[in-house]
Write a structure and sequence with these properties.
This protein is of the alpha+beta class and 699 residues long. The protein is built from 21 helices and 21 strands. The strands form 6 sheets. A 6-stranded mixed β-sheet has the order 10-19-16-15-13-14. It has a 6-stranded antiparallel β-sheet with strand order 12-11-21-20-17-18.
Length: 699
């Protein structure tokens, strides 16, 4: 068995096994989808579920909503996949991850409703207001799970704004849920807007899904947080069957098309991408992989909102009698009827060469002709007429190029805007981090918790909220309590560095500053060591203003004053919350929570007191808190033990430990006194019995 310090940063074996099983399921789904779609081609034509290819010289019937077959195959294989990620918890002693299961089920529900919406649109030809309403309702199960999981609604701020606001993250609260709801609506309609030529719908779905899948694998490899890795693996496992079935669709839909994907595929693809972005906690990064779709939406706004006429079909125009190529399709309107802002917008696009514009006289009035405002028509404006397969290839090439640029933006260019981690990439998005409520903390109380614990141990029900935002009104450095109540040990991996630090101040700081440590500040930057690796030195520099510990009447609190998350293991806090005692909590910059609730500790002490002095002594192991700067550890992280952390400290609450020693000593004295009293009573009883026997013999 590996020693703690020898543990390597390797992906969780169960995650790897889940991905491998999903790969096999995905391959089977792809072949099954291709086989079934071929079988259903004559059935769809027989049931008159077909359309005419308007970009062909000879228009033959082509089965249209064939995406529903691929989507049905996807759903069947996803149902088979449901138990796979949770096999390790079956008949295990660990607590079952119900939230993770609900996350997967909510994803399947949302995708299933999107498929239903798409098929209804293919058959019933829904109106636009219905297409906006139904995806909103479909997103509710997903957003509910996101909410009850306690996921963050904070966004990481650029460096410039951080300096201006003095904080790294901005919690936008309900606005973040509105953003995710709008993301679902956008994704379910974005692919549907770019349509009309063979292979373009399935092609863009494949490119985006493949890009996101690669992003998931990168995150699984580089992240330390196994909980975040699990959600990225879930995102990957939702995408891979979609990717293989989409490839099967593409082979039948590419030029010349044997089937049409229909609106079913577009809604299915869009909802799947939105779901994996939200569940994988990279909903903002997802936008980077949809740059052509975002541009197409913005470019289409004048027609989508009817500022200029918008025909039902805006696909490129096929020249039957001429060169057999696709040309820009046009829209005509009367210039005088345009709103001044619309004229300004059209002139803006003309000046940048993004719009074909021609004025002509018609019925003694000035009319204008513009290209239909889609990205496909815009490509034709720059390239000239193209064959259908050429236009599809150009667009997919543009989609691939934008995906490459998205990776560069996410993992390289973001260096100039955001803080980066050890790998030279931006720190984890705040979606990956636990959220904290936004309350206000009063100034630290002068009468600390340890003055109260010296008097009596008694159980009391109820306590103040243990998670609070750090907005303290205190400007001093706390009160000197007269005797040291805390001791701090600094470690680099398994090696303890420097002398033990003790403080008698009611609040003290652990910082990365280089000044000499004082009674209220333990400055790790002042601790020197020869031959320290550059990477370790960089981690130490990220400590910054570090963390602050202070005690109040209801316990001991910590707040994070640095610009990076801190990872904290607090056993008494875990007992209060019903978590495992080894749970590690991620603390966002600018937030704080209680690490040593006095009520919980008093109750634990009372329980131990009933069991005896040994149980009281065992509680001393819980009178400590471990803090890591930059990396988490434990069951939810790749580093399993604290001894594998590069920079961490251990805080011992020595005043509480002394009180436990005194209580254990008192209990031992009481036990000895009771034992002595019991022995005396036994001797007296034996003496009385002997006297009675003597009297009986004499009589």
């Amino acid at each position: 068995m590996n020693r703690p310090e020898d543990v390597q940063d390797q992906p969780n074996e169960h995650i790897v096994q889940t991905i491998l099983v999903n790969c096999l399921i995905s391959i089977a789904a792809g072949f099954t989808a291709k086989y079934l779609m071929k079988q259903y081609i004559p059935i769809f034509i027989q049931r008159k579920l077909y359309g005419l290819d308007q970009c062909k010289e000879v228009q033959t019937p082509v089965p249209e909503p064939m995406g529903v077959i691929a989507a049905a195959v996807y759903m069947i294989f996803m149902f088979l996949f449901i138990p796979v990620p949770f096999i390790q918890w079956i008949r295990a002693e660990e607590q079952y991850p119900y939230v993770r299961l609900l996350s997967l089920l909510s994803a399947i529900i949302s995708i299933c409703t999107a498929i239903l919406l798409g098929f209804a649109d293919d058959v019933l030809d829904l109106r636009w207001r219905h297409k906006l309403l139904f995806p909103t309702l479909s997103s509710l199960p997903l957003l509910m799970i996101y909410y009850i999981s306690g996921n963050s609604t904070a966004v990481l701020l650029p460096k410039v704004i951080q300096d201006f606001l003095g904080r790294s993250y901005l919690d936008i609260g309900p606005l973040f849920y509105i953003y995710m709801m709008m993301l679902v609506i956008f994704c379910t309609n974005a692919i549907n807007i770019i349509a009309g030529i063979n292979g373009v719908e399935a092609g863009q779905g494949i490119v985006i899904a493949a890009s996101v899948a690669v992003f998931n694998l990168i995150q699984i490899h580089r992240l330390d947080d196994l909980n975040a890795c699990w959600y990225h693996s879930l995102s990957f496992c939702l995408l891979l069957p979609f990717l293989t079935t989409s490839i099967a669709v593409y082979f039948l839909n590419k030029y010349p098309a044997k089937v049409f994907v229909g609106d079913t595929y577009c809604y299915w693809a869009g909802m799947t991408l939105a779901v994996v972005g939200i569940l994988g906690h990279f909903s903002k990064t997802l936008i980077l992989f949809c740059i052509p779709q975002v541009f197409n939406f913005l470019y289409s706004i004048p027609q989508l909102f009817h500022f200029v006429p918008c025909p039902r079909h805006r696909l490129p125009k096929f020249d039957k009698s001429g060169d057999k190529k696709l040309h820009m399709s046009m829209a005509e309107f009367e210039v005088e009827k345009l709103h001044p802002l619309t004229k300004f917008g059209l002139n803006f696009l003309r000046n940048f060469g993004l719009l074909y514009y021609r004025e002509f006289e018609k019925e003694e009035k000035t009319w204008a002709e513009i290209n239909n405002m889609t990205i496909l028509n815009l490509i034709l404006k720059f390239t000239g007429p193209l064959y259908e397969y050429q236009l599809n290839s150009v667009f997919l090439g543009l989609q691939i190029f934008c995906s490459i640029m998205a990776f560069l933006c996410r993992f390289h260019f973001a260096y100039f805007l955001y803080d980066i981690d050890d790998f030279g990439v931006p720190n984890a998005e705040p979606e990956d981090m636990a959220t904290c409520s936004n309350l206000t903390i009063d100034s630290p109380s002068k009468s600390g918790f340890f003055e109260k614990i010296k008097t009596v141990f008694r159980p009391r029900i109820g306590s103040k909220s243990s998670v609070q935002s750090v907005k303290t009104n205190s400007s001093n450095n706390g009160e000197d309590l007269g005797e040291n109540w805390v001791a701090v040990y600094y470690y680099e991996y398994a090696e303890r560095i420097g002398d033990v630090y003790e403080s008698s101040c009611s609040e003290f700081f652990i910082t990365g500053n280089c000044e000499k440590s004082s009674n209220y500040s333990y400055n790790l930057g002042s601790i020197q060591k020869s031959n320290r690796p550059p990477g370790l030195q960089k981690l130490r520099s990220n400590i910054g203003e570090g963390v602050r510990f202070y005690n109040k009447m209801d316990g001991i609190y910590v707040d994070n004053r640095s610009t990076h998350p801190a990872f904290i293991q607090a056993p008494v806090r875990a007992r209060q919350r019903g978590d495992h005692l080894t749970t590690v909590y991620r603390l966002l910059p600018g937030h704080g929570f209680i690490v040593f609730p006095s009520t919980t500790f008093e109750y634990m002490t009372l329980e131990a007191q009933r069991e005896g002095p040994e149980a009281v002594q065992a509680l001393k192991q819980l009178c400590r808190v471990r803090v890591s700067f930059g990396k988490g550890w434990g069951d939810s992280y790749r580093v399993r033990y604290a001894l594998g952390l590069p920079v961490w400290v251990e805080i011992l609450f020595i005043a509480a430990m002394d009180e436990l020693d005194d209580l254990a000593l008192t209990l031992r004295r009481l036990q000895n006194q009771e034992a002595f009293t019991s022995c005396e009573n036994d001797v007296l009883e034996e003496t009385e019995e002997e006297a009675e026997l003597t009297n009986f013999s004499d009589s």
